[in-house]
Amino acid sequence: MKECGAKIVDLKFTDMPGVWQHTSIPADQVDEAALEEGIGFDGSSIRGFQSIHESDMILKPDYSTATLDTFCATPTLSFVCDVFDPIKERLYERDPRNIARKAEEYLRTTGIADSAYFGPEAEFHYFDRVSYENTNNRAYYEVDSREGSWNSGVEPRGYTIRPKEGYFPVPPADSQADMRAETAITLGQWGMAAEMEHHEVGASQAEIDFRFDTLLRTADNLMAFKYVVKNVAARYGKSVTFMPKPVFGDNGSGMHVHQSLWKGGKPLFYDAAGYGEASQLMLYYIGGLLTHIDSLLAFCAPTTNSYKRLVPHYEAPVNVAFSARNRSAAVRIPVFYKAKPVSKRLEFRPPDPTANPYLAFAALLCAGIDGIKRKIDPVAAGFGPLDENIYELPPEKAAKIRSVPGSLRESLDALKNDHTYLTETGVFTDDFISLWIDYKTERELRPVEIRPHPYEFYLYYDC
Q1: 442 part of the active site
Q2: pLDDT tens across 267-283, in order?
Q3: What CA–CA distance (Å, rounded) separates 256 from 8?
Q4: Which of 296, 335, 403, 427 is deepest in the core (most CB within 10 A)?
Q5: CA separation (Å) from 316 to 85, 286, 326?
Q6: Is residue 388 annotated as a catalytic residue, yes or no?
Q7: CB–CB of 289/368 below 8 Å?
Q8: Is 256 a catalytic site residue?
Q9: pLDDT value, residue 342
Q10: Catalytic: which of 31, 42, 105, 449?
């Protein structure tokens, strides 16, 4: 605090659905003892936390996350916090960050590996304008971008993105270039090394990749990443959404999650003689992911909007299979760099950026470990490898390839019936699984299901 001249200390934490919350304290009111004891807050006002009769909770900052918040006019030192239960005198069981920490601890107890590295690729959309409304008699949304092909008749510069042609254009067609560049530089100031930034396939869509790290640190980084992306965009008068499918008929935003296991500083997923240079250990890990994929998506694709992205075509990874290069498979083994053990990892493609990273990464690690412990070979289990274009396969062969769930309801039902691999580890509790299913069903799924949709008026009003 003294070194950076902080006048404000900001304490950030993540609610159950996966959105940052914060509270701030003047720096002259903070000393080391106060930070050690933590800061009290009302847990009943946070989504997915406590009931009103047990609301007192404590935030304890993780000192290793200290970062100067570059978006505050007043010098502000930001901490990511853990949530502490003052009655049980331990970390709060429903705190997503605590669940991620327990997943790392569980990995070490297995002896399989001592480190799990995660690298998410969170795509998103920039919009010049967004508006939406839901009342008893009115429902609509509208998003707009100067890049949209729908603006070809009004865009005075003439540079709009044709449908599905937004991958890698140069300015002026790429109107985001300066914004993404500033975001990449700012990420560095927040301790994240931006490795690549580019325009994505959809009009107004973008991707900025930052370097992988351990499970917990990457989850922290992803929360900070969203914060940085949104705040830089606001400086340019833009709005950002990480919704998987904000634009009908165009590519959705995914969050492909790269994963690898290491032990004693050595990578465990490489074998020069293996399929795609994958080790048998990696194949078992893949077997676990694909065996539990339906229930995994309750955490990895956790919104009703997620399943508007997970449809055939649009490069959507809907096939329950693995492949070295096929991007329609749920699991891909990147082969950009041959004979390079440190780069060998798998890519789990169905997740999207609405996922709470602490929960999604923890669930993925548990599923992968379950595959290793049970030696689930994905080839023997019929999961591939899928090295052909599924859309060109004979119908009888294509019919044998199962698809991921088609709705949030299906994924939640799968989680209800398949969560032992999460709870027997001690990483997730039965209480949390029930809480997640109930919250998603009652607060998100049912409210969407019971409302008339604007397209229903197009289909049925004159019946």
Answers
A1: no
A2: 999 999 999 999 999 99
A3: 36
A4: 296
A5: 41, 18, 11
A6: no
A7: yes
A8: yes
A9: 93
A10: 42
Q: Which two tokens mark 162?
A: 């044709």
| Residue 418 designated active-site | no
Tokens 């991921």 sit at which residue?
404
Is 200 tagged catalytic?
yes
Closest-CA residue to 124 (of 193, 183, 191): 183
Give the C-alpha distances (Å, rounded to integers) separating 17 from 104, 187, 297, 444.
21, 23, 14, 11
Classify 226 as helix, strand or coil: helix
Is 123 labeled as catalytic in the residue annotation? yes
Of 125, 217, 256, 345, the active-site residue reads 256
The model's pLDDT over 324-333, given as tens digits with 9 standing for 90+, comes to 977 789 999 9
Query: In the beta sheet, which residues pair with residue 20?
Result: 14
Q: Is 327 known to be catalytic?
A: yes
Cβ burial 317-349 (10 Å sphere, 16+ → b, else e)? bbbbbbbbebebbbbbbbeeeeeebebbbbbbb
Tokens of 345: 């990892």
Q: 200, 220, 294, 352: which one is catalytic?
A: 200
Catalytically annotated residue among 82, 147, 207, 250: 207
42 is catalytic: yes
Q: Which of 10, 82, 85, 123 is catalytic?
A: 123
Whether 292 is catalytic is: no
CB 371 within 8 A of CB 285: yes
Q: Nearest 5°: phi and psi at 121? A: -115, 90
Are 317 and 329 in contact, with CB atoms under 8 Å apart? yes
Model confidence, pTM: 0.96
Which entry of 97, 199, 292, 349 is annotated as an active-site residue? 349
